[in-house]
Amino acid sequence: MQNIHRLLTALLLFTGLIWSQPAASPARARGYLTSEQTSGVVRIVLPAPTIGDARYQADMAIFRATRSLKGTPRWALAQADDNLSIAGLLHAFRCALGITLTPEQAPKLAALIARAYSDAGAAANVLKVRYQHKRPFQVAEGDVCVSPQGKQALEHSPDYPSGHAALSWDAGLILAEMVPEATIDILARARAFGQSRIVCGVHNASAVEAGDMTATAVFAMQSESLEFQKDFDAARTELAQLRAHVNSKPTGCEAEAETLLKNPY
Question: Model pTM?
Answer without folding.
Answer: 0.88
